[in-house]
Amino acid sequence: MLQAPPPVGQVPVSAGKILNTKPTETASGPTYEHEVIENYNTEEDAILLSTKWISTSKLVKLAKTRGLVYKKGKFSAIEEQQLNSAIERYATAQQLTPDQLNEVVFPSEGKPKDNQFWSEISQAVPQRPIISVYHHVRRTRHPLKAQGKWLPAEDDKLKEAVANFGQKWEKVSFVVGRRAPDCRDRWRNHIVGREIRVNGPWTKEEEQELTRIVEEMTVKKGGSLDDDVFWGAVSDLMGNRRNRQQCRTKWTDALSKRVKLNGKKSRWSNQDSYILVHKLDSLRVRDDTEIDWKTLSDEDWNLWSAHVLQRRWLSMKRSVKGYEEMPIREIMEILKAKKTNFDPAPSKTKRKPSKKYPSAETVHSSDECEEDEVDKREEDEE
């Protein structure tokens, strides 16, 4: 049986401590003392999470009033494995055929949810509320999932459905024949403003406009440049000339760093690679899908967006020959050994990248890099 996930609230070691504190040498290499908030639920709270259909607002309230601990956000690969195993065990125990199991996950209209099923599989992923498990399983097993590239005829159906129903995505989904979240994201990322959308390099005027909008939503309201903003609203304020994905990527991967450095451009260094691998090692995760990339930034090292850090990690990981077959702890140990030393002021000489395993130092961020997927808001958090 797989162990329970790492405690919620685990905090990575700070960049300042990594750079200024000599690590303790152990058999497995240098380690650092770091803060870990040991948050665990009582048995009563664990039962509450796996049996009660609690809304997001109520979960937040319970976390404040009674210290309830729960996880939110993307499910890790290990959690996916735990859920799939639990579903298979349930189907075997109940002697369900694939069609009967599908009926349990997607009951016919008017038929109530099978609470026994949802409660039992929720227990396989500790600290996940049953409502979160419900939405996740139905999303990943949806019969309309992964239908490929949108066709012009489907876009026409989508526009007609939105004209008739507004942004009521379940009704739109029925007409279009795509999942509701897919219809929503297709509409807001590709259809809205398509006629006036601009692609390619950003102009200085666009960059200044985006910076002004983000600062008004964050700093001028008493927050910081790293605060989350609603990128759909940002796109609207830019007249939808750039969509929400373009605005977010441009800001997080390029402009935010320039603003923090008063207009200077930043460049990834060997020191940054050193900090990143030791921060990730301090989390003690079992799989890199468990990493919450937004937690890695700190006051001593806050130039890099979660997206950039994730890309850098992937580059570093792929520089380890045979990484595909290695557990993450082994990859970490190899990278820690490779990143033991760094040059605070790296030479401007560029190393020729390896064709098969490019290192983190040879991969340079692009201001125009677009993410492979839209950052989707979890349905169970809406």
From TrEMBL:
A single Gene Ontology CC term: nucleus
UniProt cross-references to InterPro entries, sorted A to Z: DMTF1_DNA-bind_reg, Homeodomain-like_sf, Myb_dom, SANT/Myb
Signal sequence range: none
Pfam family, one: Myb_DNA-binding
Renumbered residue ranges of the record's region Disordered: 1-29, 339-382
CDD domains xref list: SANT
Domain Myb-like span(s) in chain numbering: 142-191, 194-255
Keywords assigned by UniProt, alphabetized: DNA-binding, Nucleus
Major site of localization recorded for this protein: nucleus
Compositionally biased spans, kind Acidic residues: 368-382
Localization in the cell: Nucleus
Record domain HTH myb-type: where: 142-195
PROSITE patterns per UniProt: HTH_MYB, MYB_LIKE
GO molecular function per UniProt: DNA-binding transcription factor activity; transcription cis-regulatory region binding
Identification of the protein by name: Uncharacterized protein
Organism the protein comes from: Lentinula aciculospora
Lineage: Eukaryota, Fungi, Dikarya, Basidiomycota, Agaricomycotina
